[in-house]
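Quick question, first post here. What does this chain look like in 3D?
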Amino acid sequence: MNEPFALMILPHLQVQNANAISGPLSWGFPAPSAFLGFVHALQRRFSAELTAGLGGVGIICHQFAPQVTSVQRGRIQAFNLTRNPLKKKGEPASFVEEGRAHMEVTLLIAVNDYMPQRSGEFFASEVMHTAHGMRLAGGSLLPMGQGKRFEAAWHPLAEDEEEQAEQFRKMRKRLLPGFALVHREDILAEHIDQMRRKQPEAAALDALLDLSGLNFEPDLPDPDRPGETAWGIRRKPGWLVPLPIGYAALSPLYPAGEVKNARDNDTPFRFVETLYSVGEWVSPHRMTSYNQLIWRYQTDLDKGLYLCVNHFRTNTINTSAEKCKEEEHEGE
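> Answer (accepted):
Ran it through. Tokens below.
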């Protein structure tokens, strides 16, 4: 993994009618693949200016408004769908149900190419202008707001890790108020182990559904009613959400043009299914490194895995270990 030379911030992007159904099991905020695809499209737009390319993206959400209507006293939420023109005989037109949402996001993009400060600032401004003519997660970007807080920013990274940490400490102020989406596969793995102690046949899907649900369980005895047990909602270790993180192969890799009706006849083709894991919304002020934010592509053709990876847990552990070593050294 190449270390980026700079970080580029595209702040407070107002997205209208983004896709809110990013997987077969869940709905809500778009999957990381939508934002990595957006960054990849930007990289192709600026292929003449970029040699090493863009190295990943951090996703911070400021506002999220799904276009839904509550029915049955709020117990069920139904998407607000479009009313398409009727057919010639007066029958309703066939359509595929779509979930939409309005959102405000900030993207922290890692840039692998070196650029001087003035050139980098001009490049960030051009990227921001181009981005507003594109689609993000299937949604349309509204015109950029007025003021410095809506302007793109360019931050060259220092070579020293301590200086990088100080840079990020100042930079993360631009990401507030908001929450960053990170990957927490470690929590899912721990929960699987806990469930299998009581239910040896429990699978990863059982653990995912258990973490994603709202579970009412018997709590401590009720002080107002001796002999009875109070019920409460099980507490979670964080703001956890089910998260599509990529795709796994269902078929061999077919040569280009062999599968009929493929979108691209110049690229090899294979059938895939969605992979799920657990994500967490974390406030940026709790982070100490930009690496905790960044999502990147990772592929394993032999295993047929096409993943979006984020090393929040790994970088958190490394940072904590470094702090402990510094404290031990100061104590000596």
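The longest helix spans residues 312-331.
The chain has a mean pLDDT of 87.
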